[in-house]
Amino acid sequence: MEQYCPVLQVVGYQNSGKTTLMETLIQQCSALGKRVATIKHHGHHTPQKQESNLKDSERHQQAGAEITAVEGGGSLQIHIKNQSWSLEQMVNLYKSFSPDLILVEGFKKESYPKVVLLRDEKDLALLDEASDIICAIIWEKELKVVEVDYPIYHLDDSVSYSEFILEKLSDDDE
């Protein structure tokens, strides 16, 4: 019998705080006894250099993730080669390991529930590009976000957005 496993994406442009938020969520979910798996999108069309791309994956492991992978440039860094890996293929692969939760860093255009990180006005376009947004986290308090049907949090309000995200993830468990 297949076990249901929630998937949550953390998306944003480069240096928006995705990996830092991932670490926080991994630590919080692990502290609750959840087996966390992570997938990081390399985001470049060139083959991965092992040292540079493992940095974020190692941060995921140190935060408590039991399974990690980095995808990009036609390879999935668990030593499996394929022409390209879709997020759906990786999620299905991970489900065979029975994690309680899969956290995904990147893959902006996929359709899993998302937390969107926005540094400044230039990043607002991501709200139109992304689907299935559950909340957004902004760096600048003055950033004007047009009416949306999900909560907007400031980066400094980590208690509120962490509680909201964990609540959403526990709702998916039921």
UniProtKB/TrEMBL annotation:
Residues 52-61 have a biased composition (Basic and acidic residues). Residues 41-62 are annotated as: Disordered. This is Molybdopterin-guanine dinucleotide biosynthesis protein B. InterPro entries: MGD_biosynthesis_adapter, MobB_dom, P-loop_NTPase. CDD domains: MobB (cd03116). Residues 7-137 form the Molybdopterin-guanine dinucleotide biosynthesis protein B (MobB) domain. Pfam families: MobB. NCBIfam families: mobB (TIGR00176).
